From TrEMBL:
GO terms for molecular function: ATP binding. Belongs to the ABC transporter superfamily. This is ABC transporter ATP-binding protein YadG. It holds the Pfam family ABC_tran. Gene3D superfamilies: P-loop containing nucleotide triphosphate hydrolases. Residues 5-234 form the ABC transporter domain. Keywords: ATP-binding, Nucleotide-binding, Transport.
């Protein structure tokens, strides 16, 4: 099955000379949730804005559901829903009229049943007759999502959709995202809440200084780059790691009462058995062992730092 979004050799250099994107190549499958992560200024919003027809690329091609974004702009744009970071709304209009008007902008006939379903899914139905100026920031964010869904797009971009949103609203939004995926909608999101990407995404992409430095299935990324740590709780605290244990790169923690051993999950042997034997040889005894694994946030920070 061809990808619903295909980006090839995409670059963008602004008149100021700023190179925002450099030879980006990316394919996204229909119905997947793809999380694009990167530090501020990495090029996330520029990439989204090009795909959505807001910014013109310098070089390269982008096709959405078979439509070239330059040669078949209307077809491409009709396929896409965009939830921007900025809370740009008509303050004096009602929720219902705002969302209905957005559908009309794409040349679609009225469909009150669809608008009602979207508003109910986003817990906006009771607010349908409220003017936007009376809504909280979180509710305005929901209205932006409703507007993006008004024309039944097949690809939905969520650019920091939960920024400034409380936990309850955030959970509602992610439930909605899951329902959209079940309906075959492709969701591409950027977020500063990396735990959300870890929970929601099928694949992870990392962008830095305008370049895609990694695209990987989430589970495979965690397997390849994840690290595990073994924390050994000692019966008696120590002031330094014995020289005989120097090869393990142990760290002292909890005032000398814990030893932390970091090991590679890809390695055939973890070295734990040998470590525990050598602990006894060094005259150290322990009362407890516990393991932990690095999170997606740990991996992301390491990736960005390595390429700094």
């Amino acid at each position: 099955m061809p990808p619903i979004l295909a980006i090839a050799n995409l670059s963008k250099t602004y008149a100021s000379g700023l190179s925002a994107l450099r030879a980006v190549n990316l394919e996204i499958a229909k119905g997947e949730i793809f999380a694009l992560l990167g530090p501020n200024g990495a090029g996330k919003s520029t990439l989204i804005n090009i795909v959505c027809g807001i910014v013109t690329p310098s070089t390269g091609t982008v096709t959405v559901d078979g439509h070239d974004i330059l040669n078949h702009y209307r077809g491409a744009r009709k396929t896409i829903g965009l939830v921007p970071q900025e809370l740009t709304t008509d303050a004096f209009e009602t929720v219902w009229n705002t969302v209905s008007f957005s559908r009309g902008l794409f040349g679609l006939s009225k469909n009150p049943a669809h608008i009602e379903r979207v508003l109910r899914d986003l817990s906006l139905w009771e607010k349908r007759d409220n003017r936007l100026m009376t809504l909280s920031g979180g509710m305005k964010r929901r209205v932006l999502i409703a507007k993006a869904l008004s024309h039944e797009p097949r690809v939905l971009f969520l650019d920091e959709p939960t920024a400034g949103v409380d936990v309850e609203l955030r959970q509602d939004m992610w439930r909605m995202v899951r329902r959209l995926r079940e309906q075959g909608v492709t969701v591409i999101l950027t977020t500063h809440y990396i735990e959300e990407a870890e929970e929601m995404a099928d694949r992870i992409g990392v962008i830095r200084k305008g370049e895609i430095i990694l695209v990987e299935e989430k589970a495979e990324l965690m397997r390849k780059l994840g690290r595990k740590q073994l924390t050994i709780q000692l019966n008696e605290p120590i002031s330094e790691v014995p020289p005989a244990l120097g090869q393990y790169g142990l760290d002292l923690a909890a005032g000398g009462s814990e030893l932390v051993y970091t090991y590679d999950t890809k390695a055939e042997r973890t070295g734990i058995t040998r470590l525990l034997t050598d602990l006894a040889g060094a005259g150290l005894t322990f009362s407890d062992l516990r393991t932990s694994q690095s999170s997606l946030e740990d991996i992301f920070v390491d990736l960005v730092r390595e390429r700094a």
